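Course assignment 3, question 2. Fill in each field.
Student: A.L.
Task: Predict the tertiary structure for the chain below.
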Amino acid sequence: MNENELTYFVFNGQSSLDFGIAVRERAPYTAPERNIELIERPGQNGALMLDKGTFKLVTEELPVYLFAKDRSKRNIREEATELFTWLKSPSGWCELYYSDDPYHLMQVHIASELSFTEVFYLFYVGEGTLPFTRKPERWNTDGLAVREITKKGDILYNPELFKSAPAITVHGSGDITLYINNQTVVLKGISQPITLDAQMQNSYTKPNGVITPANSSVLNPIPTLDPGDNLFDWIGNVTKIEVIPRWWTI
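Answer field:
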């Protein structure tokens, strides 16, 4: 068996191959359900649609197999226990990507029970299904790199069809008015770099590396990034702006 030919996944920074697990077949490619509410009215055909502008969680069931190691030293129960501990020990959402699609990250967790069936077939000795629950976004890994804006009129291009929720760090001082397309955010009395995190809906500084809330210094909602061009402009003393765009698709 050539491990280089196996499809695997990386969960919480560690490869499934480290635990003897490879993908038997990819989970179905599933688009998330849009979060809408249909409201029926007496005497009216059909229904009114209330679109909440979000997507629901996705269940992604991944068939996998456990390939054989040295059976004289270990058994499937030991290996399955090691695997279960790896998948179940983290709390909260963890990053996941597949070896055949390293350009998109997902955030997943496994809350459901896990089980493996012992089988003996060629090079593998166990099989099962991993019931991941994932967030609807598939993040473009290119959008997780920091971009620098150094002059007024610089443009960031969002290659996806959805608005993204970036982390924007403004380096400057004093009162600053930042414009991104038709969005405006006002920063008051800035004396050190301030990060505006649209995903967390929070603003903070990091004096001496300590995260310190700075919402009181920010007026107006934190900007998002539109599909296509996003033009940056400002009034005030800005030396540079660092942006993690967080492009995403479904």
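Instructor remarks: The chain is about 5% helix and 50% strand. The chain has a mean pLDDT of 91.
Grade: pending
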